[in-house]
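Bumping my old thread because nobody answered last time. Still need a sequence for this structure:
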């Protein structure tokens, strides 16, 4: 194969990639790439009121790379420490606080800007029932602020996460 054929093949492959991935999707996925810090982890109650879902000062980090891999962690700042200092010998209440006070998962993310949705394809999670699932969320991106709503829980409450891009 000569250089001209390689160049022609590369141009053809580039054109094929451009056709198979619309520019609007590529730009939207790239626009989410980066490091995000949690601003709010709220819940919209069935009665229309909104309040904190992970305490008064939740902590969190969302990392998204240019290839669409992500890692997400949300923690309730007020989680009780284990009195024994050993997670193997915690009390039931300490275990409950640790589990209910955190949400972590990682995998890949797919952005559909025209639909205003993003989908987390969860590989592993702190809640094992989420592993191997896909979770679609409606989102809004305004400058360096990303917010999305999780589908309603069985009790009708809707979790809302708000993230700010770190510079």
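Sorry it took so long. Here it is:
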């Amino acid at each position: 194969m000569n250089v001209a054929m390689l160049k022609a093949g590369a141009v053809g492959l580039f054109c094929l990639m451009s056709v198979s991935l619309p520019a609007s999707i590529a730009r939207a996925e790239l626009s989410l790439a980066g490091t995000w810090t949690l601003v709010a982890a709220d819940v919209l109650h069935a009665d229309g009121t909104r309040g904190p879902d992970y305490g008064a000062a939740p902590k969190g980090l969302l990392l998204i790379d240019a290839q669409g891999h992500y890692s997400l962690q949300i923690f309730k700042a007020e989680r009780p420490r284990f009195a024994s200092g050993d997670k193997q010998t915690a009390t039931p209440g300490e275990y409950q606080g640790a589990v209910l006070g955190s949400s972590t998962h990682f995998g890949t993310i797919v952005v559909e800007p025209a639909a205003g949705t993003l989908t987390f394809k969860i590989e592993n999670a702190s809640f094992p029932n989420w592993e191997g699932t896909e979770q679609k969320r409606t989102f809004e991106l305004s400058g360096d602020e990303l917010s999305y709503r999780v589908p309603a829980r069985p009790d009708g409450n809707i979790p809302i996460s708000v993230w700010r891009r770190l510079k």
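Residues 112 and 118 are 6 Å apart (CA to CA). Let me know if any region looks off to you.
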